[in-house]
Structure formats: structure tokens, C-alpha cells
Amino acid sequence: MILRGFGEQAQLKLKHARVFVAGAGGLGCAALQYLAASGIGTIGIADDDVVEVGNLHRQVLYTMQDVGALKADTAAAWLLKMNPETEIHVYPVRLTSGNIADIIADYDVILDGTDNRETKYLINDACVSAGKPLVFAAISQYEGQLAIFNYPPGSPEATNYRDVFPDTSSNEPSCQETGVLGVLPGIIGCMQCNETIKLITGTGKPLVNRLLVYNALTNQVNEFSIAPGIKNAGSIQPDKSEVIQTWYGTSTQGSEESLEIKPADFSGQLNRKNITIIDVRESDHRISPADFQHIHIPFSELTENLEAISGDTIITFCERGILSLHAARMLRDAFGTERKIYSLQKGINYWNSTHRDTGT
Amino acid sequence: MEVQVYGRLTDIMGNNGLKPEGIENTDQLKKKLLFLYPELSGIGYAIAVNNQIVSGNYPLRNDDVVSLLPPFSGG
Prior knowledge:
The complex is a heterodimer.
Chain A: H1 7-16, E1 18-22, H2 26-37, E2 42-46, H3 71-82, E3 87-91, H4 100-104, E4 109-112, H5 117-130, E5 134-140, E6 143-149, H6 161-164, H7 175-178, H8 183-201, E7 210-215, E8 221-226, H9 240-245, E9 260-261, H10 263-269, E10 275-279, E11 295-296, E12 313-317, H11 323-335, E13 340-344, H12 347-354
Parallel strand pairs in A: 1-2, 1-4, 2-3, 4-5, 9-13, 10-11, 10-12, 12-13
Antiparallel strand pairs in A: 5-6, 6-7, 7-8
Helix pairs in contact in A: 2-3, 2-8
Chain B: E1 2-5, H1 8-13, H2 26-36, E2 46-49, E3 52-54, E4 65-69
Parallel strand pairs in B: 1-4
Antiparallel strand pairs in B: 2-3, 2-4
């Protein structure tokens, strides 16, 4: 607060601010750390992913002990240790056209720390529709992009992501595929937090309608202005119902009903032949008992043990149905359409209390 | 005119600051680049002229600096 140009008023604005961070990966971890440290009063974290060993070089809120745990939960726990006065809301779900409007409604500023294009378009459109400023960031190998879109919300001067990249079709390989300099999302995530603080407190020159590109190898920084009012053919001014109906690609569309098996249907599968049921909980997280025939392969060991999985039908389960859904997606990527793969919806905890002894 | 590239375009086109001549607008530039670098096919990118992002077919002058910005999606 003693910092010149800042002061108590600015600190109060941070305290009253509600900031939502989509993605608790490389960008998210850095942004979240400094958002909490700077005294942002309410923080929302959305990420349905679990911590993997390969994340640790760049997702600095997580440790080896956290492998297998939900990122959103782990990040929240750490941030609360840093600043116990922060109010933190966790959304361990995939953002979809069906849920995003309700989730972001409660927040003042949205940060995009996600790692795929479909979700970036989804977040952009939802922010335009809901009238929320968006602090956008994305990285690729050694470079990062940063911008503030949709500010002031609803103003004819405001630009959005589609004014820069109207073409949704181009495909960019993920960080897992091409590799990424570990510290890069850290740098860009911190800059994202900086832009958020500037926006909330009204200090400095936030990147409104400007795209910044940073090169970590050369330290070159370039800024490009985005002309307000020029809407490319691909941009839309969606309202909430349009966002829901728009196709954003398979990862963000509605729920993954085809991958989940309902608790009632699970019972019927138990005694079938050629079926493999897998408990994917990490060894010290096996709380609810599972007294039917199954094998145990912790999520963190799944990829090394694919050959051990036989059967035409595979059903994964875990405590609440989130980790197992992740496992089911992974197995689907590994086995393709050779096998039928499901995750027990709502997990073993729910199934035990509703279906175990009823014989249904 | 100088063309600067970013992101994966650097992998495809190198980093040496192309200086094409006789290009009058961005459509012509895109065609020329596609001809010189066929791997650009299917890769979308934004175009900025003198650090201003432009849309449509934008006229270019000899002393312009054109930047090609592919979308990044990592996080």
C-alpha cells in the first residue's frame, strides 16, 4: 500500500474484486499465486484436470505428492495457506457451453489460462455475452500472447478474440506434444495477473484492445493494436442462448454423456463376461469400499499398464466420478473404438449409497 | 516491405525478416507466402501492418512492416 501510485483505495478495490481463472495449468498457477498474494478478495478456479508428473516443470503450485489429485482443489488449498482471507471457489469441471454462463456470472474479471482453442473461443464468447472483461493469454513454445478483451464491456470500442483470430479452424499442437519452456507460462501468467490488477485498480496502462507478444528467447516484446469497431466476418455478438447452441468442438460441448455410465446401469454390468472394471484411485485415496470384482490401477500408473487391461468393455471408477472420467478419456485415446469405455457417473461413493445392496 | 513472423511460423519460414517486393496488398502477400512455403496451407494467422491488426484485403506500401501472428493456444 505504500507503493507510489497505489495506496489504500487500490488495495480495497482488490479486496472487493471477484476474479475467475479458467485453467490451473502453467498460466493459471502463476496468475493465481500472485492474485491471492495481492489480496484479491474472491477467486474462482476452474479446472477438471489432475496433476501429472509432466506438469511439474511449469505448474508451480503442485508437488510430487499432489500427482493424481485435482488441480483445482490442490491450487485452492495452497492459495488458502498463502492468504487465508481469500474466498476461493473451486469448479473441478470442464467448461462447456452449457455451464460457463452460470459459472462466470458471479465474477468481475475473467482470466483465460486454458490450453486449447475451443475453450478459448468459448470463454471469449461467454465473456462478450455476459459483459465481462477478459484477460486473455496463450503460449506456444517460446512465445506468449496477452491481451485484454471486451473492455469496457458492451462498448463499441471493445474488441474481442475473434477480432484478431476469426478463423476457428487452424490447429495448434498442445504443450504436451511440442514441449514448452517451463518458465514461459510463469512469466506470461504473472503478466496476466499484473494486467488484472491494473484493470481493477485503474493504475498504469492495461492492455485494453492490444495484443502483446513476448519472446522468451530474445526478450523481444511487441504490441499490436486491435482496431475497435472493425468486426471480422467470423465474430459474433452472442447472447447466452447462442453461446449454448454454438458448437465449440467435442471437448467443450455439453456433457460427456457417452463416456459415463449411470449408476443404475452399472449394476447390470457387474456380472457380465469380458468386462474389466478398474479402480483408478491412488492407493491412499481408496476410501469407499468396492466389493465387486475389479482391478486396481491408480490413475498415475495407467499409461504404463495398458497391456494389463483386457476385456471388450472397460469401466473406470473412483470416489466421485471425476478422476475416473479423466481416466476414461485417456483410455479412449489409447484404445480408440476397439473397446467400449465408461466411467462410473458420480463415483463409487454414490453407487454404494444408492445401488449396492438393492440388487437393481 | 519487411515481414516479421511469430510462433510456429518461425519454424516454417525462418526468422530472417523476409523482404518481398512488388506486393500491393495482403491478399497478394498471402498468396506469395503460400507459394514460397506450402506448409503454410491450413495455418491461420492474423496480419498486422505497422503494429496495427488489419482485416480483409489491406493495401500495403513499400515501407510497411507486416507482422504475421498465428494463434497460440497453450496454457
